[in-house]
Amino acid sequence: MQRLSRRTLLGGGLAAAAVAVTGTPLLSGCASDKKNQAAANLAVKLPTYVRFTGVTPDLPGTDVVLDGFLKYPANPLKAITEKPGDGQPISFMTNIPGAIPPAADSNQFWQAVNERLGSELQISMASNDEYPNKLATRVAGGDLPDIINLPPTTPQIPALLKAKCLDLTDQLSGDAVKKYPFLANIPTEYWKGCVYNGGIYAVPVPRGMSRTTLPLYREDLLAAKGIKDPAPKDFEEFLDLAKELTAAKQNRWAWTRPPISYLRQLLGIPNQWKEEGGKFTSFYEAEQGADALEAGRKMVAAGVINPDSFSAQASQRKQWFNGGIAAFDIDSFVAWNQYYADNTAGDAFSVNMLDVPSQGRPWMGAALNNITAFRKDSKHSVETLLKVANWMAAPFGTEEYLFRKYGVAGRHYALQGTDPVPTKTGVVETGIGLQYVADSTLALYMAGKPDVPRKQHAIQEKLASRLVYDASYGLYSETVSKDGPRLVKVMTDVENQIMQGKKPVSEWASAVKDWLSQGGEKMRGELQQAYADAAGR
């Protein structure tokens, strides 16, 4: 499964806040302490994986390819008979990727959730951009909720978890997890990102292949130009295709932004960190790095990228794609479905994804969206909090999943055959962040559009055997935690200046040297040490 680097999202503010909570600098132990902790982590028995077999997929998956469904099962199984809550309010804080939904007193979906849980779910929300600061403030103030959405990139997370969150090892290790069958349905690999301090301190929110990111394209716009198979054999074909789809005078461009990650995959550059013989190498150091940036510079110079791409927000780029201003965007399988949900182009709207040419290597997406921890001094029992998480993880095909994702029939969705088609009210009210408490691995499905999961399943089968994983997944580096976000921003700024022609490609080599001296070498050393400790070397 995935290898995930603990890189961007939260900066030093949360680390400082964690010091305020614990009263001591986090992760200040000596090397032998860290080695002992690595050994303790390695000794943790991960939860037993018990695959849920109550629903049969139309397009069976594997340990990498996701299950696909052409329609929602008729008469979905009601898998949980008792309310998981204890009658008392349960607090939760989370990011919200879209618009903040109506508050509970004016949100019938939220009210229905509270009724089904048997406890009022009090959710503190923030946008994706605002969430890091909000989390840091809550940590610093000692005002944590019962259930906490923690991005895997949270700085100095081991000590924060140890100081403020419940150790769940006794409840989840090995066969103990079977008490919570839908947590047991989460594959073992995802639990590796929840092991700290010699124990299991959180529940994973898995994403797997669904976060693999490649070029998405408007199949309908390409078909209108007679282009049926846009898969390029090399960069020159890729650039020619982009030129063909660009008409600047008509406010149409091939791309929403330079697809730098795809260019790196096309050139076979490693996915974040590569490990060989215990030695780690960053993708920044790849010999082909300058070539990828030169390719991006050529695309910008050729005028095939929307000229506002470097200043636009993600939401604006999505509007360009949906509105036909751009034919290509680079994003994930999750975004593929979201484009259909946000479609403004009518019934002709059709999306597909480009594979990586045979000489390149596609990157596996991040394993986890976040991990979910429980406050150590919560008034609720650990069993109650785990029952709530188990309810949230009920998989596709169950009645619980149908409700959790689509809401109440008649208000939040209408049935089209057996498929729940969201209403406008449903789109507005259901986005309260339940998927960040816990979730099953995602299924390939689009209500009323069986061609979508067919296409998705087909491209995943092509990718599966060629995927490149991030070797740093499950390894903790204090420098990545503390300095990673700042250094990523510096490198991204250099990338953008090179692609815009404001700096020569030759500047990349010196930027990589600076990155190494300012923290990259320390990251490498810490990852190598963590790898060696975990392997018992």
From TrEMBL:
Protein's UniProt name: Putative aldouronate transport system substrate-binding protein
Location(s), subcellular: Cell envelope
A Pfam family assignment: SBP_bac_8
PROSITE patterns tied to this protein: PROKAR_LIPOPROTEIN, TAT
Entry annotated with the keyword Transport: yes
InterPro entries (UniProt xref): Bact_solute-bd_prot1 (IPR050490), SBP (IPR006059), TAT_signal (IPR006311)
PANTHER family membership: ARABINOSE-BINDING PROTEIN-RELATED (PTHR43649), SN-GLYCEROL-3-PHOSPHATE-BINDING PERIPLASMIC PROTEIN UGPB (PTHR43649:SF31)
Family assignment from sequence similarity: Belongs to the bacterial solute-binding protein 1 family.
UniProt-listed Gene3D superfamilies: Periplasmic binding protein-like II
GO CC annotation: cell envelope
Keywords for this protein: Signal, Transport
SUPFAM superfamilies, alphabetized: Periplasmic binding protein-like II
